[in-house]
Amino acid sequence: MRDNSFLESVGRYFDAAAPHTGLPEGLLSQIKICNSVYQIYFPVKINGEVQVIEAYRAQHSHHRSPTKGGIRYSNHVNQEEVVALATLMSYKCAIVDVPFGGAKGGVRINPWEYTEEDLEKITRRYTTELIRRKFIGPAIDVPAPDYGTGPREMAWIYDTYRSFHPDDINAAGCVTGKPVSQNGVRGRTEATGRGVFYGIREACNQPDLMDRLGLNLGIKGKTMVVQGLGNVGSHTATISQDEGGVVIIGVSEVEGAIYNPDGFDIHDVIRHRAEHGSILTYPGAKAFGKEERRAVMEFECDILVPAALENQIDEHNAGNVKAKIVAEAANGPVTASGAAILAELGVVVLPDIYLNAGGVTVSYFEWLKNLSHMRFGRLQKRFDEQNYQRIVEQIETTTGRAISDRDRQMIIHGADEIDLVRSGLEETMITGFQGIYELYKEKEGIKDLRTAAFALAISKISNDYISLGIWP
User: Which residues pair with 226 in a beta bridge?
Assistant: First the structure.
């Protein structure tokens, strides 16, 4: 196995945390190993010629059912990567108390080289192969979007599954991340990025942690650099700016990176790239070309958010990181060797198995919605609004003062689905961080938040193995 491969890094993180759990070697080995991997080769006719597509689905752990994890489309997909991602999903779900085992899928293509019609053919055929081997279903394995996929692909998966199972009233629960019009849930698209924001904000609200880093308490006013303006990076940046008061001073994309120590409006940067095809021409910022785009990791800032792919900070560039906090919005952006160097520098790493759990958390909400056949808020929204209206009227009668229309609307507003989803996600991310941080502070020998997160996840999974009778 090559040094610092993604899967090797995940294994090294597990091995570092395992001694702190007090569990027997046999149980640790069972938790660590990937239970099932399905490698697929299937033909698809593209432009009149048949192409053989390579694809995977890995189910790391069945301590909870169904298993859960995204499907990525990338020409870098391989079995090792998919297994590593499925492994992280098991730990991620355990940390935020989402009752799924970990899974992941991948199709080895560059999606930007195919037409929409071609992608639909590939997606439907991939789904068919999963159905044939019972690797998908609302009680078996529930995919979701990942790099290179989105609501469109999830809708194709849902439709394909439904055509094979026309009598399954819970068919919509076979996949999450669907369009809202196709039984999706409001707030799913932004979920991972919003979860990253909540996680960073909670870390910045810890007085002892901020004292150690020499930073002011709270997230407001802190400087942030974001690597990658895809779904996760763009939502992390916009929400951190709009709701947290963070100053975005650097971003990178495939074409390069830009930096301005005085900050810029991230919405304006995103609009500029959409209109001009590049961030490099954004006015007032120092530009770094494609060959220099990894320089974004070395920008001076309080918070660095790697939100692209794995293995972006390693032994070669970790020593040049100037951020006080590295927030792993992507899966595995810091290798084990890179993490060791960051620890020596005193950099706090908010680990991926916690920080980007917002996506699977809201996917869980969508799955519950599909199984209940009920939109969140439908039962109580109108009742709450009427009840709040009576309270406002009573206050006005008692005080003899009228409340402004703006304040009235704000007070009597009943929770919509998006409000409940965001509230549930916020609660999940706050509780998840508290569990990790308490273990980090209390457990002697645990030196960083990642080790604490892995130890917490391993312990929770072991409890399931034992209580459910899976472990003899």
Answer: 251, 305
Task: Please tell me whether residues 154 and 219 are part of one structural domain.
Answer: no
Give dist(CA 361, CA 133) in Å, integer: 27
The response to whether 363 counts as a known ligand-binding position is yes
Place of tokens 């039984």: 183
Residues in Cβ contact with 278 at an 8 Å cutoff, skipping those fewer than 6 apart:
253, 255, 256
Catalytic residue among 32, 45, 104, 443: 104
Residue 122 belongs to some domain of the structure: yes
**Mean residue pLDDT across the chain:** 93
* Number of domains the chain is built from: 2
Clarify whether residues 300 and 271 are in a common domain.
yes
Q: Any binding-site annotation on 192?
A: yes
Among residues 340, 456, 469, the alpha carbon closest in space to that of 91 is found at 456
Are both 162 and 291 inside the same structural domain? no
The answer to whether 231 is a known ligand-binding residue is: yes
Range of the domain at 252: 191-355
Question: Are 150 and 215 part of one and the same domain?
Answer: no
DSSP state of 261: T
Measure the CA angle with vertex 117, ends 116 and 118; round to 5°.
90
CA–CA distances in Å: residue 380 to residues 79, 223, 286: 46, 40, 51
Rounded Cα distance, 238 and 193, in Å: 9
344 and 233 in one domain?
yes
The string of pLDDT tens digits covering residues 170-184 is 999 999 999 999 999
Q: Of 95, 212, 200, 97, whose CA–CA distance to 447 is shortest?
A: 212
Choose among 81, 162, 173: nearest CA to 128. Answer: 162
369 marked as binding residue: no
Q: What is the pLDDT of residues 255-310, one digit of tens each?
A: 999 999 999 999 999 999 999 999 999 998 999 988 887 888 899 999 999 998 78
290 noted as active-site residue: no
80 CB neighbour count, 10 Å cutoff? 16
